[in-house]
Amino acid sequence: MKPLNHTVSEFKESIFTTMTKMALENSAINLSQGFPDFDGPKWVGDLAAKAMADGKNQYAPSLGILPLRTAIANNYKRFYNLDYDPISEIVVTNGATEAIFCAAMALINPGDEVVVFEPFYDSYYASLKMAGAKVIPVTLFAPEFTYKMSDLKAAITVKTKMVIVNNPHNPTGKIFSPAEIKEISELAEKFDFYILSDEVYEFLTFDQAHNPTACFENLRKRTITISSTGKTFGLTGWKVGWACGPSEIIKAIHNVHQFTTFCVAHPLQVAMAEALANMDEYLVDFKRQYRAKRDLLVNGLKEVGFNVIKPAGTYFTMAILKDGESDIEFCQKLIREKKVAVIPTSAFYIKSDEGTRMVRFCFAKKDETLNAALTNLKSKEPSQ
Ligand SMILES: Cc1ncc(COP(=O)(O)O)c(C=O)c1O
Q1: How many Å lie between the centroid of ligand 1 and the Cα of residue 200?
Q2: What is the pLDDT tens value at each position of the chain, 384 positions in all?
C-alpha cells in the first residue's frame, strides 16, 4: 500500500489516553485527564433537552446560531468591555479544539513559523503541523513559569506568522502578567504576527479577573480569541466553542470550518445561548467550588510532601519532583503503588527537558475523589 500522510502518521497516542488506560488497568484514581468526574449543571442539560423536544435537530447555520453568537458578544462586552460583532466577528466551532485547527489552517502557509510557549496543550502542535507550520517553542520555567526574554526574542523573526498564548495556561496554571503580554505585543507590532489566544479557562482564575489578550492596546486587530463552554460549564463532551476576531480573519476561519464540520450540534447551541446569557449566579458558585477544590488538593499534596505549585488559574496543579526522579517513571510508579494516575509533563514539551521533573494533577474532581487520592498517597498500601 502507498504510505499514509507523513505528518499525521507521526502523531503518537495522546498522553491522556495512555494514562487513562493505565489508570483503568490498575484501578487507579484518575487525576490525569482534564475534565470533571461530575456532571455539568442540570439546568443547562434541561435547556438542551428542551431544544431537542422543540425540534432544533437539523443543521444549524454554519457560523453558529445568531442567539449564541449574540450571547458570546454580549459576554465579551459585559465581562471585558470588548466589542465583537456577532454577525461578522464570531464563528461557533466544535470546541476550542476545532477553532484552533481552523485558525491554523486559515492563517498558516507551509513553512510559516509559529511560536508556542511550552509546556503546551497538545492540539496546538498537531494542528500547526497539519497546516505545515514550523513550530518554534519558547520554554516557561518553573516555579513561576516565566519565559526568558532572550529566548522569546531569539524565537521571533520576520518569518513568525503567529504566536500562541494560552491564558490561563494549561498545564501550569500560570496567568500571563500584563508586562509579559505587553512584551509580546511590542514584538507583534514590530514583526507583524497574529496572536492566537486560547482562553478556555477564562472563568477559572482564583485571585484576579481574567484579562483577554485582545483587550491590550493594539492587540485586538491581530488577535484570534478562542474559548469554549466545556470548562466553564463542566460539559466538556458538548464541544461548543468559538473564535472571535477581526471579520477578515473570522471569514477565513469560517471557510475552514464550513468544510470540516460545517456546524455545531444545533440543540446544544440553543442551550448554550440561553446559559451564557444567564450565567452570573452560576459563576459565583462555580468559582467558589473550584477554589475550594484547588485548596483541598494543593494543601493535601503539600502535607504528603509534594513540592506543589499553587495555580493562579485553570483546574490543574503542577508538582516538582525530587532530584533524580523522572516524570514518566514517577507516574508509572504512582499508578502501581499508590493507585493514583497523574500526567507526566514531558509530553507537553518539544525542546526543553523541564517536563521530566514535573507532573500534573487535575482537581476538576469530586471532593471524595480528591480525598480518596490523598488518602492513597498518604497510605503505604492504598485500598483502591
Ligand atoms: C488549553 C486548552 N485549550 C483547548 C482545550 C480544548 O477545549 P474544547 O474541549 O473546547 O475543545 C483544552 C482542553 O483540555 C485546553 O486545556
Answers
A1: 6
A2: 999 999 999 898 888 888 889 989 999 999 998 999 999 999 999 999 999 999 999 999 999 999 999 999 999 999 999 999 999 999 999 999 999 999 999 999 999 999 999 999 999 999 999 999 999 999 999 999 999 999 999 999 999 999 999 999 999 999 999 999 999 999 999 999 999 999 999 999 999 999 999 999 899 999 999 999 999 999 999 999 999 999 999 999 999 999 999 999 999 999 999 999 999 999 999 999 999 999 999 999 999 999 999 999 999 999 999 999 999 999 999 999 999 999 999 999 999 999 999 999 999 999 999 999 999 999 876 655
Counting ligand 1 atoms within 8 A of each CB, the residue from 224, 228, 272, 343 with the most, and so the one to mutate, is 228
Q: Which helix (H) or strand (E) is 109 found in, with range?
A: none
**Does 99 lie in the same domain as 52?**
yes
Mutating to test ligand 1, I would choose from 116, 120, 121 the residue with most ligand atoms within 8 A of its C-beta, which is: 121
| The three cell numbers locating residue 6 | 507523513
Give the Cα separation of 170 and 360 in Å (integer). 10
Cβ of residue 170 lying under 6 Å from some atom of ligand 1 = yes
**Is 114 in the same domain as 244?**
yes
In a domain, 104, yes or no: yes
Q: Is 26 in the pocket of ligand 1 (CB under 6 A)?
A: no
Q: Write out the residue range of the structural domain in which residue 303 sits.
A: 6-39+281-378
Beta bridge partners of 57: none
Backbone torsions φ then ψ of 166, nearest 5 degrees: -115, 110
Residue 18 lies in a domain: yes
Could you give the number of structural domains in the chain? 2
Q: Is residue 342 part of a domain?
A: yes
Report the C-alpha gap between 350 and 120 in whole angstroms: 9
Residue from 231, 272, 360 to probe ligand 1 pocket by mutation (most atoms less than 8 Å from CB): 231
In a domain? residue 107: yes
- Residue 347's CATH number: 3.90.1150.10
Dist CA 244 CA 73 (whole Å):
9
Tell me: do 144 and 179 sit in the same domain.
yes
Q: Identify whether the C-beta of residue 328 lies closer than 8 Å to the C-beta of residue 334.
A: no
- 60 CB less than 6 Å from ligand 1? no
Contacts of 305 (CB under 8 A, 6+ apart): none
